[in-house]
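Appendix C: a fully annotated inverse folding record. The material below is reproduced so that readers can follow the format used throughout the book. The structure is listed first as tokens, followed by the designed sequence.
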């Protein structure tokens, strides 16, 4: 359901095509809320059917740019102020950590090094995005200020996971009691 509100929020900034919205998700939101092209286009269709967005213009090769309607703007504002927040974190890396005891120590160490690299690179990517926004119109645009707040959360989240993966490498492996299948 949150994809719906992410699209409405992006369209509140101004008209955009499905391609433009997918690019915005990739650039700005992917560290915290990834979205795939097919899901974006399907949700745009549902939003249009619900009267929350409408076609703003048509371009070459069937390109459509959408704009938010008053109904859509009211709905995203309602979601921001009244909606229950889903605080569930679905992080496969943490789920896998419950079963690290099944891994060979060398495999586990290599896995944790890859995880640390990935999380560090993702935090650094978000830092770069934040720095670019800070050099731009930060402080003058409400959209940019809000985006900067969200990016800071992504930086903290991914840096915390990088620190966790680094720490986990220092935890001595458990001494296996035998094969779990025996």
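Designed amino acids, in order:
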């Amino acid at each position: 359901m949150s994809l719906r509100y992410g699209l409405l929020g992006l369209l509140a900034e101004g008209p955009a095509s499905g391609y433009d919205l997918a690019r915005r998700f990739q650039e700005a939101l992917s560290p915290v809320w990834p979205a795939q092209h097919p899901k974006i286009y399907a949700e745009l269709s549902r939003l249009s059917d619900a009267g929350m967005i409408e076609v703003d213009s048509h371009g070459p090769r069937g390109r459509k740019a959408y704009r938010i309607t008053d109904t859509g703007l009211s709905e995203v504002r309602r979601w921001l102020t009244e909606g229950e927040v889903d605080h569930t974190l679905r992080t496969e890396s943490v789920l896998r950590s419950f079963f690290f005891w099944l891994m060979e120590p060398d495999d586990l160490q290599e896995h944790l090094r890859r995880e640390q690299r990935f999380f560090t690179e993702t935090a650094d990517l978000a830092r770069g995005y934040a720095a670019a926004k800070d050099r731009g119109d930060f402080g003058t645009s409400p959209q940019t200020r809000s985006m900067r707040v969200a990016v800071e959360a992504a930086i903290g989240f991914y840096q915390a996971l990088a620190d966790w993966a680094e720490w986990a490498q220092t935890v001595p492996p458990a001494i296996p009691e035998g094969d779990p299948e025996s």
